[in-house]
Design goal:
Elements (H helix, E strand, L loop, with lengths): L4 E4 L6 E6 L3 E6 L6 E5 L4 E3 L4 E3 L4 E3 H12 L13 H11 L10 H16 L16
Length: 139
């Protein structure tokens, strides 16, 4: 499901991919307004499935971080108010979501965006953070 949820650089919130046009994508906001709009090639668009967080060892897919938060929060929105949270509160939140995150390369702005995106997904009842199944063709 995260493959169809998009982040667009310079635009707040998350967007759901509806269809593809000749030179654009048609997206819908994941908020109460459900506003539809085209997104063109000049916009930097990335699927949440393609985003990863830095750790001390490797890059961890965002879906795994979301799954950790989902388990920690019991399927509810985060208890953290990311808009007013201090750096220490954000670091504590991130430490619970991903204990070995890279403290040099994951910035407070990244942590705020993570909490914001998680809350948007929960509000829209998007909680399928499982790894996509790969089919084995070996016999």
């Amino acid at each position: 499901m995260l493959e169809k949820i998009l982040a667009i650089s310079g635009k707040p919130g998350l967007y759901k991919l509806l269809s593809r046009g000749n030179n654009s994508l048609i997206v819908e906001t994941l908020d109460a307004q459900k506003k539809r709009m085209p997104v063109f090639g000049a916009d930097k668009v990335i699927s949440l499935a393609d985003i990863a967080m830095y750790t001390d060892d490797e890059e961890v897919p965002l879906r795994r971080v979301f799954k950790n938060i989902l388990e920690k929060e019991g399927g509810k929105k985060t208890s953290l108010d990311y808009k007013k949270a201090s750096k220490d509160e954000l670091a504590a939140f991130m430490g619970e979501a991903l204990p070995n995150y890279d403290r040099d390369r994951v910035y407070p702005a990244d942590m705020k965006k993570l909490a914001q995106w998680y809350n948007i997904l929960i509000e829209n009842e998007i909680t399928d953070f499982e790894e996509p199944k790969t089919e084995d063709t070996e016999e």
